[in-house]
Amino acid sequence: MHEEIVEFLDNRLLIDLCGEYDKNLAEIEQSIGIHILRRGNQLAVVGEPGQTAEAVNVLNTLYERLEAGKPVESGDVDRELRMGDEPQEGTRDGDQLEMFRGGPIEIKTRKKLIEPRTDAQRAYVRSLFAHSLAFGIGPAGTGKTYLAVAVGVSMFIEGHVDRIILSRPAVEAGEKLGYLPGDMKDKVDPYMQPLYDALNDFLPGKQLAKLVEEKKIEIAPLAFMRGRTLNNAFVVLDEAQNATSMQMKMFLTRLGEGSRMVVTGDRSQVDLPRGVPSGLHEAERLLNSIPDISFNYFSARDVVRHPLVAAIIEAYDADS
Q: In degrees, to the nearest 5, what angle opens at C-alpha 236 toward C-alphas 268 and 110?
């Protein structure tokens, strides 16, 4: 066994690095397969040489993050464990589009700074800024919708777009809309709730309510997009696997001047009636060679929810 000693000068930052009840250290130990011992302002990393070097690199990177005034939470530890060996050269000048000149990928919102946790997420975020139309395709829990909404909020804050439009097909997944109480808005709102949840993560409640009231942010079923031309907008279609071919064509042709459009979906969760083809599948087939349209794919390795979610997805994939 090999031991490496890492010394940290600021004990307060070291406490934050270790996390409550040393939970950050425990996550690093379990992921890499080493042991970390606390000795005053030092951490002793014990394990195989290659593994200890990896752990030391993760610890130093997280400590540098704390020195820069950024927090270290479980998600940050997870990201460094997944992508810590990937170089992040370059600097930012305040414009988020600087990421295409080699800077770090950070999505600035009113409430938090969002950073991709996997290589696929990093590539996805790059494509959201770089292309007029981007597709994010993969299983649940990979951040497809969350990152798309975050980029939309960021571009709205930076003044690159004038409004944000979020949409979903109101397709029933076993339940009937007609049995839900209330008027049409009350019936449809449960389908839109994941989009509201994402927005609440990025914008203060009062500001979000005001933007919705002023129609700067719209959340509506896909059927409500018909006949519109969406200019200077950031438009997201979520759960696109449940759009029919005609609905998908209708939606994609709403793209107007100065707008960005993102289509997200999971091909394994189609809730359309038997025999009705998914518009997402058809769009993949027809549009994959058109310039300025990007297709980004995720797998169970990119799941950033509970670790069990990845195992569940892999089990279902193996049985299909």
A: 120
Residue 254: CA atoms inside 13 Å, Cβ hemisphere, count? 25
Is residue 139 within 8 Å of 265, Cβ to Cβ? no
CA distances from 40 to 10, 73, 302 (A): 11, 22, 36
More confident: 316 or 153: 153
| Distance, CA of 82 to CA of 237 (rounded, Å) | 28
Ramachandran angles phi, psi of 167, nearest 5° = -140, 155
Would you say 232 and 163 are in contact if contact means Cβ atoms under 8 Å apart?
A: yes
CA distance 156 to 258: 12
Tokens of residue 220, six digits: 């509506």
The values of phi and psi at residue 298, to 5°, are -120, 155
Query: Residues 40-91: pLDDT tens digits?
Result: 899 999 999 889 999 999 999 899 889 988 888 887 888 788 775 444 433 3
Nearest to 112 by CA among 177, 201, 35, 30: 201
Q: Which two tokens stand for residue 175?
A: 């339940």
- For residues 210 and 171, the model is more confident at 210
**Helix count (H) and strand count (E) of the chain?**
11, 11
Sequence-separated (6 or more) residues with CB below 8 Å from residue 203: 109, 110, 111, 153, 211
Indicate if the pLDDT at residue 177 is higher than 70: no
Question: In whole numbers, what is the pLDDT of the chain averaged over residues?
Answer: 84
End-to-end CA distance of the chain: 42
What pLDDT, on a 0 to 100 scale, did the predictor assign at position 104?
A: 61
CA 87 to each of CA 56, 69, 98, 104: distance values in angstroms, whole numbers, following the listed order: 16, 21, 16, 9
Lowest mean pLDDT among 126-140, 165-179, 221-235, 273-287: 165-179
